[in-house]
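Incident log entry.

Two folding requests arrived from the same account within the same minute. Monitoring flagged them as a possible duplicate submission, but the sequences differ. Recording both here for audit purposes.

Request one:
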Amino acid sequence: PVPTISWRKVNGHNPSKARLRKSQAVLEIPNVQLEDAGMYECKAENSRGRNVFRGQLQVYTYPHWVEKLNDTQLDSGDQLQWECKATGKPRPTYRWLKNGVPLWPQSRIEMVNGVLMIHSVNLSDAGMYQCLAENKYGTIYASAELKILASAPTFPLNQMRKTIIITKGQEVVIECKPQASPKPTITWKKGDKALRESKR
């Protein structure tokens, strides 16, 4: 006799959107998602007995960004850390480009699982960077610019007063605020002699 047919997802529930057609002989899953993957079982039985077929549904996805890059400005000597994160199945692998040319690990440059680190950046590191996330179904790109700030110390006009008149016994505060990148070291002298800290 014509068998009755039933479907089930082994170790899980049938997707709620699943449809059965042709006297339940055909299982249809529209708009397949990652969670639909798994082992499916088709069971056919009549008065003479039953038979079961199992098939594995594997779902693959195009890479998709979870975390992208942002344009960054750093002082010369700082450390850069950028992270690219993408999902996909198979899991995406990552590559980096600088100004369109492949970037490789070097003494100051590390690349591990989508993380790019550049130690002690300098002007030569400035440029446009791209992170590529790819699996066998496709490649996606994320771009960001790295700007390096580097300037010798300068004192904007009127930053320090040439003459300070103060009454004996009062406290005086003299500020030294140069503009510089990276952050400069500051020393003080009185005349030609270096000033040392004291109780006063």
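Request two (distinct sequence, not a duplicate):
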Amino acid sequence: DSFDILGDGVKELLVGRDDGMIEIYNFESADEPVLRHDYALSESIASIQGGCVGKDGYDEILAATYSGWLTGLTTEPVHREGGSGEELKLSQEMQNKISSLRNELEQLQIKVLQEREKYQQSSHSSSAVSSVPAFSVNEKFTLNKDDASYSLILEVQTAIDNVLVQSDVPLDLLDVDKNSAVVSFSSCDSE
């Protein structure tokens, strides 16, 4: 997306990447865009948009991720300064917002408990049928021209415990910074 998130009168380029990076590029006097800010999310970004959503006068970047999470980055200051010994007072609007969020959280917790109880009852009944839930897999296998390697990227909407890669040609697996996996090798019977 293009949006004036920095408030300088010139639109910036907002980029959401497959690796979870949000980047803000500015076109200053140079012909090439200049990276001004970046932020890393834990999953790929499906869509990105700039605008004013939450509070008047403070622009935001909204990013939708692969699993459906909506993440917002705002220009609103997070911290407010107070003098020595001065207590920070919350406005009535902010207190109401906090109260409504607490109420909503309590209602969601009650709903989760009810649904969990309903599931437990149905799973212990004699007519219960067990099935594996269906989920979609977002996979990419791309060539990295810089080091002549391929990147295999797998995303699912649940935790990944194991990934088995089987090949009939020898493979070298390279570790990357974002990878938290433990790699183990085992030789395969050629037959």
